[in-house]
Amino acid sequence: MRKRIMQQESHVAPSVQHGWLDLDQLALVEVTSEEEAHPIEAALTDGSKEGWRAAQPGEQTIRLVFDAPQRVSRIKLLFRGDGQERTQEFVLRWQPADNQPYREIVRQQYNFSSQHDSEELEDYAVDLAGVQALELRIIPNTSGSSAYASLAQLRLC
Fold first, then answer.
1. Cα(23)–Cα(1) distance, rounded to whole angstroms?
2. Each residue's pLDDT tens digit, 1-48
3. CB 47, CB 38: distance < 8 Å
4. Of 16, 68, 127, 140, which sits 20 to 30 A from 77 (CA to CA)?
Protein backbone atom coordinates (compact mmCIF):
# COMPACT_ATOMS: atom_id res chain seq x y z
CA MET A 1 0.00 0.00 0.00
CA ARG A 2 1.29 3.41 -0.89
CA LYS A 3 0.47 6.35 1.38
CA ARG A 4 1.12 10.10 1.43
CA ILE A 5 0.18 12.70 4.06
CA MET A 6 -1.48 15.64 2.33
CA GLN A 7 -1.34 19.19 3.55
CA GLN A 8 -4.84 20.27 4.40
CA GLU A 9 -5.76 23.70 3.16
CA SER A 10 -6.80 26.03 5.88
CA HIS A 11 -10.28 27.44 5.49
CA VAL A 12 -10.17 29.51 8.64
CA ALA A 13 -11.76 32.90 8.21
CA PRO A 14 -9.27 35.76 8.26
CA SER A 15 -8.89 37.57 11.54
CA VAL A 16 -11.43 40.28 12.09
CA GLN A 17 -8.59 42.45 13.37
CA HIS A 18 -7.34 42.93 9.81
CA GLY A 19 -10.47 44.91 8.99
CA TRP A 20 -10.14 47.47 11.80
CA LEU A 21 -9.36 51.04 10.80
CA ASP A 22 -5.86 52.24 11.64
CA LEU A 23 -6.99 55.08 13.88
CA ASP A 24 -3.38 56.04 14.59
CA GLN A 25 -2.99 57.03 10.93
CA LEU A 26 -6.52 58.21 10.09
CA ALA A 27 -7.61 60.40 12.98
CA LEU A 28 -6.71 62.97 15.59
CA VAL A 29 -7.93 61.97 19.04
CA GLU A 30 -9.21 64.49 21.57
CA VAL A 31 -9.76 63.49 25.18
CA THR A 32 -10.86 65.48 28.23
CA SER A 33 -8.25 63.83 30.49
CA GLU A 34 -6.05 60.78 30.79
CA GLU A 35 -3.88 59.09 33.37
CA GLU A 36 -0.25 59.13 32.32
CA ALA A 37 0.02 55.36 32.80
CA HIS A 38 -3.18 54.73 30.78
CA PRO A 39 -3.14 56.96 27.69
CA ILE A 40 -5.91 56.88 25.08
CA GLU A 41 -3.61 55.15 22.58
CA ALA A 42 -3.82 52.05 24.78
CA ALA A 43 -7.53 51.69 23.97
CA LEU A 44 -7.21 52.48 20.26
CA THR A 45 -4.41 50.10 19.30
CA ASP A 46 -3.91 46.36 19.73
CA GLY A 47 -0.84 46.72 21.91
CA SER A 48 -2.30 47.10 25.40
CA LYS A 49 -4.72 45.24 27.63
CA GLU A 50 -4.91 48.08 30.13
CA GLY A 51 -6.73 50.63 27.98
CA TRP A 52 -7.42 54.27 28.76
CA ARG A 53 -8.33 55.77 32.13
CA ALA A 54 -9.30 59.32 33.01
CA ALA A 55 -7.07 61.34 35.32
CA GLN A 56 -10.03 62.79 37.19
CA PRO A 57 -13.44 61.45 38.21
CA GLY A 58 -16.66 62.30 36.43
CA GLU A 59 -17.93 62.54 32.88
CA GLN A 60 -15.32 62.27 30.12
CA THR A 61 -15.32 62.60 26.35
CA ILE A 62 -13.21 60.86 23.71
CA ARG A 63 -13.47 62.26 20.19
CA LEU A 64 -11.92 60.93 16.99
CA VAL A 65 -11.61 63.58 14.28
CA PHE A 66 -10.81 61.99 10.94
CA ASP A 67 -8.38 63.55 8.47
CA ALA A 68 -10.79 62.56 5.68
CA PRO A 69 -14.41 61.35 5.99
CA GLN A 70 -14.65 57.61 6.65
CA ARG A 71 -17.20 54.87 6.11
CA VAL A 72 -17.85 52.98 9.35
CA SER A 73 -19.70 49.68 9.38
CA ARG A 74 -18.86 48.33 12.83
CA ILE A 75 -18.09 49.85 16.23
CA LYS A 76 -16.71 47.74 19.06
CA LEU A 77 -16.41 49.06 22.61
CA LEU A 78 -15.06 47.18 25.61
CA PHE A 79 -15.43 48.54 29.15
CA ARG A 80 -13.98 46.85 32.24
CA GLY A 81 -15.21 47.28 35.78
CA ASP A 82 -12.86 48.40 38.52
CA GLY A 83 -14.50 46.59 41.44
CA GLN A 84 -16.72 49.57 42.25
CA GLU A 85 -20.44 48.84 42.13
CA ARG A 86 -22.03 51.44 39.88
CA THR A 87 -24.22 52.16 36.89
CA GLN A 88 -22.28 53.56 33.95
CA GLU A 89 -23.71 55.28 30.90
CA PHE A 90 -22.18 56.08 27.56
CA VAL A 91 -23.38 58.01 24.55
CA LEU A 92 -21.90 57.36 21.12
CA ARG A 93 -22.41 60.03 18.45
CA TRP A 94 -21.09 60.76 14.99
CA GLN A 95 -20.67 63.89 12.94
CA PRO A 96 -21.22 63.76 9.17
CA ALA A 97 -18.88 65.62 6.84
CA ASP A 98 -19.23 69.39 6.33
CA ASN A 99 -19.59 70.03 10.08
CA GLN A 100 -23.22 68.95 10.21
CA PRO A 101 -24.68 68.45 13.71
CA TYR A 102 -23.77 65.31 15.66
CA ARG A 103 -26.18 62.38 15.43
CA GLU A 104 -26.67 59.90 18.25
CA ILE A 105 -25.89 56.26 17.48
CA VAL A 106 -26.61 54.73 20.88
CA ARG A 107 -27.10 55.61 24.54
CA GLN A 108 -26.52 52.69 26.88
CA GLN A 109 -26.50 52.07 30.64
CA TYR A 110 -25.21 48.98 32.42
CA ASN A 111 -24.18 47.91 35.90
CA PHE A 112 -20.76 46.98 37.18
CA SER A 113 -20.65 44.70 40.19
CA SER A 114 -18.26 44.91 43.12
CA GLN A 115 -18.35 41.10 43.48
CA HIS A 116 -16.05 40.32 40.56
CA ASP A 117 -14.27 41.84 37.62
CA SER A 118 -16.89 42.55 35.03
CA GLU A 119 -16.77 43.54 31.40
CA GLU A 120 -19.25 45.17 29.08
CA LEU A 121 -18.71 44.47 25.39
CA GLU A 122 -20.77 46.44 22.89
CA ASP A 123 -20.51 45.54 19.21
CA TYR A 124 -22.64 47.54 16.79
CA ALA A 125 -23.25 46.99 13.10
CA VAL A 126 -23.78 50.42 11.57
CA ASP A 127 -23.81 51.95 8.12
CA LEU A 128 -22.29 55.41 8.48
CA ALA A 129 -20.95 57.16 5.39
CA GLY A 130 -18.85 60.30 5.48
CA VAL A 131 -17.95 60.19 9.19
CA GLN A 132 -15.98 63.31 10.05
CA ALA A 133 -15.90 62.67 13.80
CA LEU A 134 -16.95 60.03 16.31
CA GLU A 135 -17.56 60.98 19.92
CA LEU A 136 -17.86 58.77 22.99
CA ARG A 137 -19.13 60.39 26.19
CA ILE A 138 -18.75 58.28 29.34
CA ILE A 139 -20.58 58.95 32.60
CA PRO A 140 -18.84 56.48 34.92
CA ASN A 141 -21.45 56.65 37.69
CA THR A 142 -24.97 57.88 36.98
CA SER A 143 -25.64 58.36 40.71
CA GLY A 144 -23.06 61.14 40.77
CA SER A 145 -20.68 59.40 43.16
CA SER A 146 -17.01 59.71 42.37
CA ALA A 147 -15.83 57.24 39.71
CA TYR A 148 -13.19 57.27 37.00
CA ALA A 149 -14.11 56.68 33.37
CA SER A 150 -12.14 54.05 31.51
CA LEU A 151 -12.22 52.32 28.15
CA ALA A 152 -10.41 49.06 27.48
CA GLN A 153 -10.91 49.06 23.73
CA LEU A 154 -12.43 51.01 20.85
CA ARG A 155 -12.30 49.54 17.34
CA LEU A 156 -13.90 50.67 14.07
CA CYS A 157 -14.19 49.07 10.68
1. 57
2. 454 556 554 433 333 455 899 999 999 999 999 999 999 999 998 766
3. no
4. 68
